[in-house]
Design brief:
208 residues; alpha/beta; three-stranded parallel β-sheet; 7 helices; 28% helix; elongated
Length: 208
């Protein structure tokens, strides 16, 4: 970061990291939230390639793991097509970091020998879904759902419809690993009610 000429950064990057960007570097904010984005993904891809082809040292700064629902795969593909050399600095996905910080192990030899990470940013009831909620409901392990807050009711309804036990524990982790983090717990049967009582809002990770 300290050697960068251009830093293109996302919404959930810690402010302490953003503050490391030197005054001499160009800062470009390209953050996204539900229903709101500064720049389309295509324009972000083009910006990264254009900056790099201008012989600038470019840092694409993301939170978590850029290859876990972070569009890092798309961006690196564009760089490869343009013949631009790049380095990936791996991060830790929020799917693992937030539950750990909340004291929730995703695996436990007496409880779960595997875990599954799913994007919740898709309507579970729609035709032609890329996510097989029927098989997820039968999954014998921990399920972590990212970007699922706005579809929580549909997700719960689908899992119950496909036979998941209503008493299965559920945790909602808000603002994982930062001072604002808090956790709301309940069961599949009552997590909607518990989340309403708690008055939480995104970013939230769902752990089942």
């Amino acid at each position: 970061i300290k050697e960068a000429d251009v830093v293109i950064y996302d919404r959930l990057v810690d402010s302490r990291i953003v503050n490391m960007i030197p005054d001499t570097a160009e800062r470009v904010y390209v953050g996204k939230s539900r229903g709101e984005k500064v720049m389309s993904q295509k324009h972000i891809n083009d910006l990264i390639v254009k900056s790099a082809t201008s012989h600038k040292n470019v840092v694409r700064l993301k939170g978590g793991d850029p290859f876990i629902f972070g569009r890092g795969g798309e961006e690196s593909s564009e760089l490869s097509k343009a013949g631009i050399l790049f380095e990936i600095v791996p991060g830790i996905t929020s799917a693992i970091a937030a539950p750990a910080y909340a004291g929730i192990p995703l695996t436990h030899r007496n409880l779960a020998s595997s875990f599954l990470v799913v994007s919740g940013d898709e309507d579970p009831s729609k035709q032609g879904s890329l996510i097989d909620w029927e098989h997820i409901a039968a999954f014998d392990g921990t399920i972590v759902i990212l970007m699922g807050w706005h579809k929580l009711q549909e997700i719960v309804t689908s899992l119950l419809r496909y036979g998941m036990d209503p008493s299965v524990p559920v945790a909602l982790i808000q603002w994982g690993t930062v001072p604002l983090q808090r956790t709301v717990t309940g069961s599949l049967a009552n997590i909607i009610e518990e989340s309403s009582k708690a008055g939480i809002s995104p970013p939230i990770i769902i752990v089942i």
